[in-house]
């Protein structure tokens, strides 16, 4: 039973380990969007907006105030002669009131302010989306740098294995006098050079992986294999978050105009006051009395000297400025896409030539190998052709990664 449990645990660990051995570009994007500190601000902005809108809508509820005062006056209303039943007013007076004000109509200003606050929040959240999207470019750079190092490392290891097998052949040739003894040393020196190159790649990969880990807030092991993305360039629709941001800014200005329009409409409130004081409403009754007042109050600014119209014109100009910024962004974005398309076309042609060069180089190496065995050429001459072949293969791998990077860059620039 214990053995079965142990085998199951080992199987699960193996699955988890294998799941962590590969990483895609989309995984990195998703991790950065989820874990980057700036992403948390979106939820915080929404919470802040909810509280602010709740505070705005509370303007529809009645406002209740409790007031109390005690005063002493240097003088009071007096009468030239005493009147029957009328006592002089005291100089010390007391009053406590409960005041209630209820908004009845304000032209929809509360609703307009709530809508404006929602629009402001959406704009701020989209600004965060723009900032997060810019992270993609940095992640893209590190990801493909690591991917290129990864391909170069595999190619060097393959070259190393072939050279090691060639060393055994040369040793045999040296033993039987067919090949000069120095030939073995030449190959050994080349193997040391490859080891040096692999060391440089390992340290560079560690640095790039750490940077990628920092941006995604995830521990990425240097042994993790990065997968080349399969990009789709058929979608020509621009989905950049900046476009949405500009549109939301213009929408916010429209809500601001709506708020300004409601600010000049009349406002009507109902009010009531209940109190107890000395004197009450009857100033001639010099005693503590209860009292109340109820009524309606209207307020309408009929002349603001054109301030509202000026504010509306200011908002219209601001909207035009945003539209020009959007046009400039779309123009630059279009130029970037055209440049990337040209780069993709160039790399595709280079890849075709790479394959042709490799075919020719492989034939040359095969011929050089036979000549070296027969003593026609030296090991150094063979090694030169052998290195030329791997330089061609390295060029092929580099262009393959560059093509994948260019396609991915096109997607980022186009807003995918």
From TrEMBL:
What Pfam families does the entry give?
OEP
Question: Which residues constitute the signal peptide according to the record?
Answer: 1-19
Q: What is its main location?
A: membrane
- GO CC terms of this entry: cell outer membrane; efflux pump complex
Q: Where in the cell is it found?
A: Cell outer membrane
> Can you tell me where the transmembrane regions are?
none
Which family does the record claim for this protein? Belongs to the outer membrane factor (OMF) (TC 1.B.17) family.
Q: Which PANTHER family match?
A: OUTER MEMBRANE PROTEIN TOLC
Protein name (database record): TolC family protein
The organism named in the record is Flavobacterium pygoscelis
């Amino acid at each position: 039973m214990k053995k079965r449990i142990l085998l199951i645990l080992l199987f699960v660990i193996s699955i988890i380990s294998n799941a962590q051995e590969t990483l895609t570009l989309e995984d990195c994007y998703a991790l950065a969007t989820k874990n980057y500190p700036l992403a948390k601000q979106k939820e915080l902005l929404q919470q802040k907006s909810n509280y602010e809108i709740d505070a705005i809508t509370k303007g529809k509820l009645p406002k209740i105030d409790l007031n109390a005062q005690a005063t002493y006056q240097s003088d009071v209303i007096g009468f030239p002669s005493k009147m029957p039943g009328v006592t002089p007013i005291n100089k010390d007076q007391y009053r406590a009131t409960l005041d209630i004000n209820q908004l009845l109509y304000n032209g929809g200003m509360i609703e307009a302010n709530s809508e404006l606050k929602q629009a402001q929040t959406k704009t701020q959240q989209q600004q965060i989306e723009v900032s997060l999207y810019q992270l993609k470019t940095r992640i893209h750079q590190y990801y493909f740098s690591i991917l290129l190092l990864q391909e170069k490392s595999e190619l060097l290891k393959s070259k190393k294995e072939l050279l090691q097998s060639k060393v055994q052949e040369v040793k045999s040739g040296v033993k039987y006098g067919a090949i000069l003894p120095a030939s073995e040393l030449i190959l050994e020196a080349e193997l040391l050079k490859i080891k040096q190159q692999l060391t440089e790649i390992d340290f560079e990969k560690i640095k790039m992986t750490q940077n990628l880990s920092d941006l995604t807030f995830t521990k990425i092991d240097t042994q993790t294999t990065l997968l080349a993305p399969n990009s789709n360039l058929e979608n020509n629709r621009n989905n950049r978050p900046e476009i949405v941001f500009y549109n939301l800014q213009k929408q916010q200005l429209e809500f601001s105009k709506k708020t300004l329009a409601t600010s000049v409409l009349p406002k009507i409130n109902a009010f009531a006051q209940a109190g107890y004081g000395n004197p009450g409403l009857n100033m001639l009754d010099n005693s503590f009395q209860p009292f109340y007042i109820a009524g309606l109050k209207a307020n309408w600014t009929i002349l603001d000297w054109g301030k509202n119209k000026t504010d509306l014109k200011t908002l219209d100009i601001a909207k035009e400025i945003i539209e020009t910024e959007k046009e400039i962004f779309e123009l630059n974005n279009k130029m970037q896409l055209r440049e990337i398309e040209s780069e993709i076309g160039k790399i595709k042609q280079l890849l075709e030539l790479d394959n042709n060069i490799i075919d020719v180089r492989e034939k040359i190496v095969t011929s050089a190998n036979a000549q070296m065995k027969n003593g026609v050429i030296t090991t150094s001459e063979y090694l030169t052709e052998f290195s030329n072949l791997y330089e061609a293969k390295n060029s092929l791998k580099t262009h393959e990664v560059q093509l994948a990077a260019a396609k991915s860059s096109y997607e980022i620039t186009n807003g995918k």
